[in-house]
Specification:
The complex is a heterodimer of chains A (about 280) and B (about 240). Chain A has two helices and 16 strands. Chain A has about 280 residues and is an alpha+beta fold. In chain A, the strands form two sheets. In chain A, strands 1, 2, 3, 4, 5, 6, 7, 8, 9, 10, 11, 12, 15 and 16 form a 14-stranded mixed beta sheet that branches. In chain A, strand 4 and strand 5 form a beta hairpin. Chain B is mainly α. Chain B folds into two domains: about 100 residues, no CATH class; about 120 residues, Cytochrome Bc1 Complex, Chain D, domain 2. Helix content of chain B is about 50%, strand content about 0%. Chain B is built from eight helices and no strands. Chain B starts with a helix and ends with a helix. Classes of the chains: A alpha+beta (about 280), B mainly alpha (about 240). Chains A and B meet through helix 1, strand 3, strand 15, strand 16 and helix 2 of A and helix 2, helix 3 and helix 4 of B.
Amino acid sequence: MLNRLRFLSTVIFVGIFGILCFTIGFASEPPPADEAAGSVSVRLYQVEGSLPADDPNSSQWDSVPESEFKLAPQVHWKDRIQEVTVKSVKVKGLHDGQNLAILVEYEDPTEDPKDAAAVEFMVGDKKAHFAHGQPMLQVEGGPVNIWFWKKENGKALDMSAKGFKTLTTQEKQDVKATGAWEGGSWKVVFSRALKTEDEQDVQIEPGEWRSIAFAFWDGVVVDGLVKEKGSQKAVSSWWSIRAEPSADNSIFGWVIFGLALAAGFELVVVRKLRKGQSA
Amino acid sequence: MKGPIASGAILLVGMFIFIKFLLPLFTAPLPASLIYLYLALTFSGIMLYGTMSASSLESLMGPFFRFLSGEGQSGAGKMARLAVLVLFPLLVGWQTYTSLAPSDLPPGENRTIHPAPPGEFVGLANPYQNNEANINMGKGLYAAYCSPCHGPNYDGKGVAAPGFNPPPANFADPGTIAQLQESYLFWRIKKGGVGLPVEGMPWKSAMPRWEEELPDEFIWKIIMGEYDGAHQSPRTWEEEE
């Protein structure tokens, strides 16, 4: 009787310990403490059928969950600005396995020809500084890919930079953008193929994380001068973006395996206990 | 209610309250993973103690075994046993799902807030005298160049602060400049965010490389103004000895 009790205690002890280890081993990291202050990533949701790639007002966007990022005046280098119009941006994203569309929505009380919006990505494996991939002193940085839209041009520019005064328009233009202003806010949708042949471009692989940053210019004219232009803009630092991978059904296999393992463990314990008590 | 189960439970709960709430009154709060580890060790100790003799084993585990075996149970006891037997596999299944399901959270980044400075910036002394004139000049420069992000109250809450990731340092917090030497601040201000080593994630920092715009004299005086304004003192070698 005593031996049986000892055996069962050991089984239960090891079982509980195993489950604790399992829980700890698989436990995901807690969300960052400042998550409540805003989003940390953009998710490009996968859809079947066509993308609202050239229509910022498409009803297809209504059901897409949004991320929101606060913006700061650009103070990193001259010419600085200390107060900007666009304080935050709401971002939505979709992809269909081939192409992606990113919608940025932000408040700007007036519609002006010089209003502009940009999204920026790190390109390749090397980390790039969010300020146009400027050189870092102790880390070898990489280039950035910038998608720039301006109201007066009505189209996007596909650009590259690796340091100050290196911003160039790429030979191969892969990005499209459409903007619509209504009631004090801009909606601009950028679209592109997930992957391109151009090594200067960010390549979006579903399931993999990339880095994204934002910039906005309020082109309103105040006292004869455009309020925000060039380096005087609202910016964000790097956040994360990922195109949703296709559904992975193997997860359910593991869930069933876990269920079966736990149920089997229970079965063994209960049977042993019953045998012990009737002995 | 007496007995090893109640004692064990009280010990576990007591240990949790002590680590989680009482200990932080005297020292820094413990991370959740460490609290978890201490509780697991306490639990192991209780189990070891409880299985030392036949009688202690019976009084510790007996009630659990009788409950799980279901012998002679009826009514509420039977339902409770059934609930436990059904819920346990479901819990394991749910845990498996949540840990494997794709998450919106990007991989965690362990950014070092105060990484080691390059050798040439270790142990430099502020060449300017710590007097009212220099401090006031430093505060004036701070107001012009630093306060938009680090705040007029030195608390990291400048008008431009909300958009930055990572946020500007809060100098009034005892965990920032009070832990650092003046030479460290000289390095961070002079070389800016781009001067950080890889563990400081320089690619995310908006801190300007002020050596391109301000002479060293201004930087040393800003440091004086910063400490005075934030009511902190620089860490010195003398204090450590």
